[in-house]
């Protein structure tokens, strides 16, 4: 889609509170923000479309494309407002969802709650049938049992059905036959099959994903239908695409079948935005850092692609605690989200340590300095106490802050308990939240099997540019970029996304006995499936294909992804792929393991429209140094020293202009802090490029 | 030092403590990503930590299981006795599986690695992982001495200045049924300590630290203070409790007298049964580990684990009792007794702080070690040779304000493996694995439900189970009027309901399946006081029978 920038394209991102809209045409951009209307989200969208079209002075018919992302599916799961859903599953395994992994996500908390399955036991119904791990039938499908269950579910008023059988991803015959029986008896009941929604090994994750898909499907299909009707009635004739959690776009039809793939589309937009910025600057190893009001999100971006993953947890019951959510196995952009934002609340624990988050003051009452009744100190209060914000100019002057309330809250809840002044308490809070974000980024890189050395941080969101340089110092990153337009980054990201679809299938292979024919057959069928979905939306644009094998040493549990050529494999390729695995493994873990065979667990094929070539920004000559608009007394969090920091207006800086730290570059939505020892240069795109001088 | 410099130093020490915990978390995550044994990579049966040069634990990864946590904390001192810090060289890795010097049975490997900065040793990284096979009889209670239980690795170097000790690896490969996994796991343990050491040096560079002593002092002070403050909130007294385990040749009684002092909690285990001739004996470090965990998660759950935070919990374990097994008594399945210790500790603490304590749960893991092929059936074998173990749990005890957790590990911190994954690594078929109705102890809050597992070999071939199950003769007790959880059951799926022994190596004949009914957790409070809507829901879900609902809960409708 990005190849066609001459036409007007509209992005719509429905978030929990606001619906963001952005129109781009050529290099012009118009944006709008309206309140989300949770009971009928299409109403907010239609109102926003009207507003943004008015701003752009366009008619509905002028739009060539609409791209939409939404958190509706996620919210339906978190709030448990999806369809009354049932599950038909292998007899003896009706409690797979309840038993989960039989673990507690917190070893020392005796009072944890575990996430409840989306389908209660009464509606998780056992069907006699059994396949073995190769797909061989051990026990044929009991068709009468399926029929009896359908009759019962009708009485119970079920609205959506999932079918998941053990090893059904190897051989879908039983799932398909059961679905056919259901459709004969009850054609209008939506049915989700585990072999279609998430055809991968591990029954808990697969059934959980399938059930979640069934749970949100009636709601999403109905919403998408209403939206399309509404948009057409409003005069939009352009194609409509949905943003997927994996970072690609798809058609309404595919989205209605697999709505679970839409869950994380908003954050995905932010990551694509970052990836695009990386491409504009030619940065091939990036750490995207998006800090907002309640959370910070970190995503690794290599070679201009956000890191992909196939696991995700939704609706965590222990706030931000890994393992406390419902697992989903779908293509997603991999990111770590932690409870660290401007509204995160600071307190002192029993060891006398400052703790920040995950509890958040939210927008109401908000941090103490908002003067709306908040009495607990938040990160924003700490930043204010350090002198980082000009109270009367916060949020473009729309929300004057009250520093005395910040100091009072910091003194009472942090400083008083530690013998620290309010200002030093503020320093402690900011250092701790920066440390938490840096630690999350580091551990995330390790879990992903990737390093963080030599990366460049792209910082955005309200807090990213404020905290970025110090997080960089803690992670050991020496360069940071602050793009423009970060306030509606997700929506802009949508406009940069390719039409794409990923198919993942499990097919067990060992290199000692590689079945070239079977692998090539599978890859060809996966390629055909993905190509079909993409061609519906590509409108003849060229497409490209990537193939990946997930591999590990026989006996290991975690796979490394190794790229495959997008064509039929030959014997020579097989040896090369095996060698590539060893070198990838050694890159991560220093030494290969001698004498081990290597196995392939699954394959992924992605077909996507070729992204527009982005010419890396041309270098610009040094520009005139900007003049400070004012000075602020700011306390440095590394040394505790208070010095005068000049403040520059970003709008008045021109490309090539240099600013030496310590300094602040202010704009309406945020401020970029340039720490001591850092310099900032505005590049040809108007982005702030920060570099840490060698010490 | 000015006031502000002092304040900054205080804040920086907090930051450094946080960083140290992140460093050991990186260490643990590296192990999970590189490990071979399913016990580590799928189940998370591992632990990782950093120690000062005196062998005192500074920080430990949150990821990990309690039995390792506290026993690994003791082990580094033993390594230092044999290899003092001044003889250690960069690139050295030391290893042992000595049950008395490490974590209580031969199946746990512990690796210690020195970290060097500017040529000077600054700290030690240690980790522990449960590996699948170490030869001998295999995981199970049948050994009559530790020598029968597997290959015994004294503290030795597995890598000497980055060069693998090939003699050691030759022995290892020859001594295990799963040599590739075992060797791979040792590489993984070393890689994970290396990752920790690398990050530690980066951290010390960033904060310009010459040693960990000052930070250690701060961590120990803060942890001691926080732990003592929590102990001070408890009523001073001596509390007694006892619990029964099924044992092997005879029932085992565990007795505790817990005395709350101003500055410590001392538990005396006098009156506990004597040693067994089989591998259910508990080495003292493992007893301290689980007893300490049971107290700590009630009394001071928020204080991170380190040398100082564990110090105020002191165990007096009489010689000759089953919780103080001396060498060479067999100890392979010490968990089956050891994991009852938190229930025993809570039995004491219930008298002090009833509102913070759970009812008894299934507690000891129900891990069936399964073996098949020629090592069971000889030349008549109908399947390939296999050796696997899965980690499974019954219900946990009811909590004062919440129901117990269904089929969930406690006190162990391990995860189970997917059935589909297990069936891919061994020729077995799980015919059922589901909740066990009417197994939860009744109460105002009920226990968690146990589960039923039915396992056969492919083609219904003969195979064997090395049983290590408990709570069959002694079901989990309720508290405050709550009912007992259902007792466990071990047998065959035949029409006669053939019963198997709860401990020991037994054949599941051709054509038969192993049937396990895992215990439910005990209930808490009077069942008649339970919210009728919750009873109704359990009835509708087929978890509580209508008869039981009427009889036990006084359920009216339906």
Structure overview:
Chain A: Residues 206-502 form the Hydantoinase A/oxoprolinase domain. Chain A: One of its GO terms (molecular function) is 5-oxoprolinase (ATP-hydrolyzing) activity. Chain A: Residues 534-690 form the Acetophenone carboxylase-like C-terminal domain. The complex is a heterodimer of chains A (695) and B (558). Chain A folds into six domains: 8-77 and 221-265, Nucleotidyltransferase, domain 5, CATH 3.30.420.40; 82-105 and 113-216, Rossmann fold; 266-340 and 435-472, 2-Layer Sandwich (Nucleotidyltransferase, domain 5), CATH 3.30.420; 344-432, no CATH class; 499-609, Dna Ligase, domain 1; 630-692, no CATH class. Chain A is of the alpha+beta class. In chain A, strands 13, 14, 15, 20, 23, 24, 31, 34 and 35 form a nine-stranded mixed β-sheet that branches. Chain A has a six-stranded mixed β-sheet with strand order 3-2-1-4-11-12, sandwiched between helices. In chain A, strands 6-5-9-10 form a four-stranded parallel β-sheet, sandwiched between helices. Helix content of chain A is 32%, strand content 27%. The two termini of chain A are 45 Å apart. Chain B is built from 14 helices and 19 strands. Chain B has 558 residues and is of the alpha+beta class. In chain B, strands 2-1-5-4-3-6-7 form a seven-stranded antiparallel β-sheet, with helices on both faces. Chain B has a four-stranded mixed β-sheet with strand order 8-9-10-11, with helices on one face. A four-stranded antiparallel β-sheet of chain B has the order 13-12-16-18. Chain B starts with a helix and ends in a 5-residue tail after the last helix. Chain B has two domains: 10-223, no CATH class; 358-558, no CATH class. Helices cover 31% and strands 20% of the residues of chain B. Chain B has helices spanning 3-34, 38-41, 66-82, 166-175, 179-206, 213-232, 284-299, 307-310, 335-338, 341-352, 374-377, 419-425, 532-540, 546-553; strands at 46-51, 57-60, 93-96, 108-117, 120-130, 156-160, 163-164, 238-245, 252-260, 265-268, 313-316, 369-372, 386-389, 428-435, 451-457, 463-468, 489-492, 503-508, 514-517. The chains are: A alpha+beta (695), B alpha+beta (558). The interface between A and B is large, with 74 and 97 residues.
